[in-house]
Amino acid sequence: MIRLNRLYSSPKIFREITFTSGVNLILGEPSENNAKTNGVGKSVAVEFLNFGLLSKFSTSRVRKIPEDVFPDEVEVCVDLTVNSKNLTICRSRGSENAPKIIVDGETHIFNKLEDAIQFLSALAFSNTADEHPSFRSMLGIFIRDERSEFKSIISGFDTRIRAADDYGPHLYLLHIDVGIYKKIKDLLNEIKNLQSKSKEFVKSVELLRNKSIDEARADLNELDAEVSLIREDIEGLENSSTYEALEAEMQSLEDRISEARQKSAVALEKLSRLEPVGIEKVDISVDELAEYYNDLKSGLGDLVSRDFEELLSFKRKIHQFQGDVLRRRRSQIEQQLDATKKELRVLDKEYKRKLRLLDQEGALRVLRQTFATFQDKSDQLSDLRSFISGHDDAVAERRERTLEKDIELQRLQSEIDHAQAVRKSFEMTILEIHNEVMRNRQASFVLETVNKANVVDLVLRIDSDGSHSVEREKTFIYDFSLLTNEYTSQRHFGFLVHDNIFEVDSDTLNRSLNFIANEASKLSGQYILTLNSDRASADAADAMKELSSCVRASFTKDNRFLGRRYQEK
């Protein structure tokens, strides 16, 4: 819990503002000489408060104030209480990156703004072990920039600042694990970077080969083969000193190839002659032969048939022997043929390698030229392999990160589901405030995960959504609900600043101020609101009377916040 106590400067260049619990009004009022209430310093006072709470100087309106109005050496000071510790933050324009923080009388001087913010963050979140957003990201919705125009309940920053919506503070206030949300955001950034990386590799491949990456994969294989061949050529050239030596080697190879081919032809011819010999078929059976000769003379047929049977048996043995001899011979020739074919393949490969060492005119190629070709092809191969490999690695890693992201998204949805009691309670608070200021309960609050860059959708619908006044009223209802709900207030800093949020129609202004007047005595936190008193008194006179004791500062054209008129740079 944080309580704002006082805003002042050292040395004094503006009237100090003291804050108390409940409602704190900073008014722009008409003067006797000038009835205008704009441009008197209400918003600048809020800017100085935010500057004291370590906002970025580069985007602050404080930076635009002339040095003679806000000199470099002047310190803007904010007294506050953070979880029972009394703090004073002092920050000057000249040392905007080196603020000073006094904690219970002990002074801490920082060389970097980020170090001071981390120090404050540690104090602000000292009572929680849960992962939490940064100190300044929380202040983004507790001190909404007037230049945000209150168009979005998610972001409270200047609409001209292009920054992604940060749902972390909202999830934290709704008791949802911010760590999961942060991890998903980190994974989404990794996925985006990997996607950009893979696209760069695709462009590099297209520039190198004038082809798509899919078509270039075939080029990679071809280049690899070419480089291997040229490497062999270089080795051959290094071992071949003269053309005559190479010519002799090639002639020897040609002779050996011719000899091997002759051997192969002879072996094939021998194989063609070694066809198996068939057994001559005998049409008469042994029994028929015996019967015939027995008719001529008794017993003669048995004798003849026995001799004939022995003759046939002998002939089969002879045929079997011939077949075995032929098979063995055929096997030997086939083995010799296989060996000859292998020798031919080796000789052909060696002959082609030698042949590559000659140019188109038959002269011996120069080693330097061949090496230059090798270097060029090797560079192309190396680049192409690097680009394709890099692309494939990035795509594979992106798939892994996408899977991780999907798992974490499911975890976050589970967290949201488990926090339904908080969401329902918060929605009930919204409906109660909506009923007070809009006179009905036609509102809803939805929180769910989405597979998009924003990770979650946080949607508040109220009656007559869309108009300028209603969008501002929506932001008021949402912010005030965060400040006062029984669950969200446990993690809230305890203060809320709205600068000119009620630039709305008269009816909306009247109902809103009456609601604030009714809540003023019940509010345990701090609600700091800037208003133009002339319009507020005209549209909500009764409410302004009740809130008269809540006025902490009022400024006019004759009595401005910084005491003088100036032109912003």
From TrEMBL:
<dbReference type="Pfam" id="PF10088">
    <property type="entry name" value="DUF2326"/>
</dbReference>
<dbReference type="InterPro" id="IPR038729">
    <property type="entry name" value="Rad50/SbcC_AAA"/>
</dbReference>
<dbReference type="Pfam" id="PF13476">
    <property type="entry name" value="AAA_23"/>
</dbReference>
<feature type="domain" description="Rad50/SbcC-type AAA">
    <location>
        <begin position="16"/>
        <end position="255"/>
    </location>
</feature>
<dbReference type="InterPro" id="IPR027417">
    <property type="entry name" value="P-loop_NTPase"/>
</dbReference>
<feature type="domain" description="DUF2326">
    <location>
        <begin position="434"/>
        <end position="543"/>
    </location>
</feature>
<dbReference type="InterPro" id="IPR018760">
    <property type="entry name" value="DUF2326"/>
</dbReference>
<feature type="coiled-coil region">
    <location>
        <begin position="323"/>
        <end position="357"/>
    </location>
</feature>
<protein>
    <recommendedName>
        <fullName>DUF2326 domain-containing protein</fullName>
    </recommendedName>
</protein>
<feature type="coiled-coil region">
    <location>
        <begin position="184"/>
        <end position="270"/>
    </location>
</feature>
<keyword id="KW-0175">Coiled coil</keyword>
